[in-house]
Structure to design on (246 residues):
């Protein structure tokens, strides 16, 4: 396996865990200083949804919509810097704030629909929202460098449950407020990368992307602004709780 593409001679103090396949970094998605330009094949991320979730002390999840939009633009710009031409980005989006994201999303892009198989809110006389938008784009706007549709062609919607019941059963839920299920990351990684390629999650939370990428033989670079989640991700990935381990 080829070495991880971290910037040679970069300041290593934020790289809390690293071996030849995985680097877990304590830092801000808007400044991935350890990652050179055009070094990453695939980005999958799940940013804070501006709904007031308390992740920790270093980040804020309640901003006026225009500031939330501008913040989204900052991390998106940094993602596009580190992504290779032809590389893909998947980002889970909060439906409520999609209009505030769009001015910052380069054309062309697609919004995929993740349709839940179970709805968790039951209300009478109104529709129950049971889907989430997922931003998908290719750097440079052409066709993706790597694409492995599951059935020979890929529809822009997919089903999979992540109703509250399922999300509460994710073991990381005890230590992170919003972990996503492994199958979601598995799906994107298998579709849009090959073994040994470099996957990045600039806001990795409990480390779902880190864990799944490693399991599938991909290299991985992840960031979180809250140090405690970098340690949590390391436990999932390395099964240890010591810095610079492997
Ligand atoms: C929705 S959670 C990600 C959950 C993840 N998908 C999982 O399965 O565990 C968003 C994460 O982004 C982190 N975060 C917030 N602002 C950040 C920033 N500017 N840079 C890096 N991470 C940030 C939060 O600490 C939080 O862990």
């Amino acid at each position: 396996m080829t070495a991880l593409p971290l910037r040679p001679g970069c300041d290593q103090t934020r790289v809390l865990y690293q071996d030849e396949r995985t680097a877990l970094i304590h830092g801000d998605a808007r400044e991935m200083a350890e990652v050179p330009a055009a070094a990453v094949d695939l980005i999958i991320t799940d940013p804070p949804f501006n709904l007031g979730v308390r992740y920790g002390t270093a980040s804020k999840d309640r901003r006026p919509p225009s500031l939330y939009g501008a913040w989204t633009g900052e991390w998106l710009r940094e993602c596009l810097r580190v992504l290779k031409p032809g590389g893909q980005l998947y980002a889970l989006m909060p439906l409520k704030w999609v209009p505030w994201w769009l001015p910052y999303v380069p054309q062309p892009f697609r919004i995929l629909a993740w349709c839940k198989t179970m709805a968790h809110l039951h209300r009478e006389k109104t529709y129950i929202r049971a889907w989430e938008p997922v931003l998908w784009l290719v750097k440079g706007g052409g066709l993706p460098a790597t694409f492995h549709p599951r059935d020979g062609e890929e529809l822009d919607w997919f089903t999979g449950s992540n109703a509250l019941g399922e999300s509460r059963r994710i073991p990381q839920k005890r230590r992170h407020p919003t972990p996503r299920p492994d199958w979601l990351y598995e799906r994107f990684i298998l579709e849009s990368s090959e073994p040994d390629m470099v996957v990045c999650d600039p806001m990795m939370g409990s480390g779902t992307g880190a864990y799944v990428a490693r399991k599938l033989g991909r290299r991985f670079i992840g960031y979180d602004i809250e140090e405690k989640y970098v340690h949590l991700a390391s436990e999932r990935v390395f099964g240890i709780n010591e810095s610079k381990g492997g």
